[in-house]
């Protein structure tokens, strides 16, 4: 890998994982998550790739509206970048949840895939 991707490229891949049509497709999510993927969820639960694929297939699609902001992309090696941003989800009952997010994206020689993700609830 010779060049660092643009913020727009990685943000687009990240946001694909927010869309219900992607989240309901095991093939689409599988293409975005690297073998060895790990997530530290906002709940404190640690998920591996297989668990995330299984959980996303069970989602009801009734989660509240998600807004994203403050994306920053930082190179961490010739073939890896760190994306950080914030999300706010508003629910039908009027509550909301703000989460600081970070993802490591790695180029496997063919495409960018997410290797690690962490969500931390912001109070």
UniProtKB/TrEMBL annotation:
Domain of life according to the entry: Bacteria
Transmembrane domains' residue ranges: none
Domain DUF4440: start-end pairs: 10-114
Gene3D superfamilies: 3.10.450.50
InterPro entries linked to this entry: DUF4440, NTF2-like_dom_sf
Protein name stated in the entry: DUF4440 domain-containing protein
Originating species: Ciceribacter thiooxidans
């Amino acid at each position: 890998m010779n060049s660092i991707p643009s913020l727009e490229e990685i943000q687009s891949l990240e946001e694909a994982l927010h869309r219900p049509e992607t989240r309901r497709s095991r093939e689409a999510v599988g293409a975005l998550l690297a073998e060895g993927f790990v997530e530290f969820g906002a709940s404190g639960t640690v998920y591996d790739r297989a668990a995330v694929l299984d959980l996303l297939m069970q989602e009801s699609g009734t989660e509240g509206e998600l807004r994203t902001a403050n994306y920053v992309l930082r190179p961490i090696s010739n073939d890896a970048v760190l994306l950080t941003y914030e999300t706010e989800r508003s629910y039908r009952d009027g509550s909301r949840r703000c989460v600081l997010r970070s993802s490591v994206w790695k180029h496997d020689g063919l495409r960018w895939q997410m290797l690690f993700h962490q969500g931390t609830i912001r109070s």
